[in-house]
Specification:
By secondary structure, this protein is an alpha+beta fold. It has 8 helices and 12 strands. The protein folds into 2 domains: 3-111, Aminopeptidase; 144-300, Gcn5-related N-acetyltransferase (GNAT) (Aminopeptidase). The mean pLDDT is 95.
């Protein structure tokens, strides 16, 4: 059988559904839908030069890759490729074909360094090393059962603190952008990020089809947003927190834990059965918080990096 690698067509439902299906099979810890795949392509920042690739066999999508440039970093020339093949179609050269196509695209955009997240399994690590990548930092995927598990009870709020859903900021979400930008810049990472483009944040975060302002929780101190837990849902029973953080001036007061607990309780009340999140293995404070909630590590991924030249 012949495998063809090409760019995903966001207007073709079979492409976006096939992409989402492969990702769900290979990476069930991150939420994807056909609509979110199409949205990511059509609303990508032009400087990202974002191209999703699919590997197709007899009309069926069996492999995928997200390829692009890290446009919101102060360091130029950084690219990325995140590649996943359907678990039942591995060891057939699909990954190598996707890597080759990704390298050509990134080289054309002037990339000098490429980052890739790889599930921490022996075969995946060997594949990455064979293609010139070296291992860097790692991160955990975590899962919480919202049906049979037990959440910590909701806590009394300290004086001056209130919790509000993100939907309350629909008329002016800029305070949440400011909070997200500050906390993201402090996240452990191989790549430095600078979120300065409010309109890009609105497109990529606030208006994203998976984002749930109703289940996102904001902790305010004396009326000022100080901590938050941002939620996504997939239209079914799966819920994920994609960022939880506290502004520097308010850290050490348990505000992020209050916000996340509020969001989790409301997600469970709304009928969601599984909660997912992810943490860098060096992010001890957030891993401790998630352990307190009852999250369990369900997989680990490793960040690999390759110099182009």
């Amino acid at each position: 059988m012949t495998v063809i690698v090409r760019e995903l067509r966001p207007e073709v439902r079979a492409d976006t559904e096939g992409f989402a299906h492969v990702r769900h099979q290979a990476l069930p810890y991150i939420l994807f839908t056909a609509d979110s795949v199409a949205y990511d392509v059509t609303h990508a920042h032009p400087d990202a030069h974002y191209v999703p690739l699919v590997a197709e066999e007899d009309g069926e999508v069996i492999g995928t890759a997200n390829v692009g440039m890290v446009h919101d970093s102060p360091e130029p020339g950084q690219g990325y490729i995140n590649l996943y093949v359907h678990p039942e179609r591995t060891r057939r050269g699909v990954g190598s074909l996707l890597v080759r196509a990704a390298d050509e695209h990134l080289a054309a955009q002037g990339a000098t360094k490429v980052f890739a997240w790889v599930l921490d399994e022996p075969g995946n690590r060997v594949f990455a090393e064979r293609h010139g990548y070296r291992a860097s930092r790692s991160a955990h995927f975590l899962r919480l059962d919202l049906v049979d598990g037990s959440l910590p009870p909701l806590q009394d709020l300290p004086p001056g603190v209130e919790l509000r859903p993100g939907a309350d900021f629909a008329d002016d979400p800029r305070p949440l952008f400011t909070l997200d930008a500050e906390t993201t810049s402090d996240e452990p990472s191989d790549v430095d990020y600078e979120f300065t483009d409010y309109e890009a944040w609105l497109e990529g975060t606030w208006r994203h089809p998976l984002f749930s302002p109703e289940l996102t929780s904001i902790a305010l101190v004396d009326g000022r947003p100080a901590a938050f837990s941002a939620a996504r849902t997939d239209g079914g029973a799966r819920y994920g927190t994609v960022m939880t953080g506290t502004a520097r001036a308010f850290r050490g007061r348990g505000l992020a834990k209050l916000a996340k607990n509020d969001s989790l309780h409301r997600a469970r009340a709304a009928g969601f059965t599984e909660a997912f999140t992810g943490n860098d293995t060096g992010n001890g404070p957030m891993l401790a918080i998630n352990k307190w909630f009852g999250y369990e590590i369900c997989a680990t991924e490793v960040r690999f990096v390759r110099e182009l030249g």
